[in-house]
Model the fold of this input.
Amino acid sequence: MSRSAHPAGARHADVLPEGHYTAPAEDLNALDPKVWAHTVGRDADGVVTVGGIAVTQLAEEYGTPAYVLDEADFRDRARAWRTAFGADADVFYAGKAFLSRAVVRWLHEEGLNLDVCSGGELATALSAGMPAERIAFHGNNKSPEEIERAVRAGVGRIVLDSFQEIVRVAHVAQTLGKRQRVQIRITVGVEAHTHEFIATAHEDQKFGIPLAGGQAAEAVRRALQLDGLEVIGIHSHIGSQIFDMSGFEVAAHRVVGLLKDIRDEHGVELPEIDLGGGLGIAYTSDDDPREPHEIAKALTEIVTRECEAARLATPRISVEPGRAIVGPTAFTLYEVGTVKPLDGLRTYVSVDGGMSDNIRTALYDAEYSVALASRTSDAEPMLVRVVGKHCESGDIVVKDAFLPGDLAPGDLIAVPATGAYCRSMASNYNHVLRPPVVAVRDGEARVIVRRETEEDLLRLDVG
Ligand code: LLP
Done:
């Protein structure tokens, strides 16, 4: 939350906690390119457009709420990551951020690999033609069926997350007469939070095998002995929505330290390291994310420097950005249903979706921006809270924002940067139907994930 003062035009500013609310942009009709997809703009009538199509037309054709995804932007960002890391590194898009068959095809075409973390994501990837060798399979509790499916399919790597899993994957591979390429996910004692990282001596979380106490070294020792496994590297993922590279610096230092210990003990130089995902995006104008080429340069330099110091050949680096690719490419389009000014407080704007299409505000206290999308307005700004239609007071989409004071039912508003972890974490709470994902490119729109129907709901309810 920024600490800026209230605008003169904000209603009831005197009763609000000092310095607690973000001042509106100079012009509420402006769309900050930092938080909006590349092709977003306004047409001559002031209507927001994406890929050359007006949101009013999208709403008419596909209804609201809807996630509107800028395909050209998705491809641009995917390509930017790919190009930034070059041929000597691999970029695995983290499918958990948002996965659909169209997305898999775009990734394939743009030369990215894919990280999946469940049988469902694996099935989606394979059904859309992602070559199995370009898939990494993650998860802290992969079922025996999932492991078998992944090994049979020939996934390029399975990221092992526990001692039990080392044995399980080795057993499945051996039974199938295969040697599975694996990485071992370790926790390096760096815990990354939203705008910072906190170095901790001990890990207290479910993922990975701690470096501390020699556990990671023991995991490698065991894995190297098993015929069913080919240990290709070490994996570390330090957290999410990270802006500061120093967390990666510490992580790389510790991962390379382990590679060195492995070399010294086993005479083996593991050829790969994966530094995970977690790079931050701009949800509001206050966020300043780094460009992929800066991130690639920084990570490559860190790893190279650490390896030189340890006299190791620099391993092949891989990364797993999810949010940083898909997050900024989509916005959620809602129709305003009610506008309720609460005297002395703020105005509640209810939209036709809510926490079922964006749980991040309720779950993580996430901040979002919002704009009036179906027209422009010169009315005075009013402080609003954008809320959903669910039976829960925590059903908040945008906690604090400013919208024009003449906002009315029927207006369309758009919440940017909802491409990551919104559709993928959407629910049917209150039996509200999950919105479609509409991809727009070069003046054409198409549904890539259709809107849920009541029949879909009832089909699962077998009485
Ligand atoms: N690699 C691994 C091993 C991960 O666990 C994750 C995210 C990623 C890559 C991708 O991280 P990204 O680049 O998208 O930040 N639901 C939360 C985020 C959970 C992330 C879980 N793991 C949210 O909405 O912020």
User: Anything to note?
Assistant: Confidence is low (pLDDT under 50) at residues 1-15. The domain at 72-324 is CATH 3.20.20.10 (TIM Barrel). Residues 246-266 form the longest helix (21 residues).
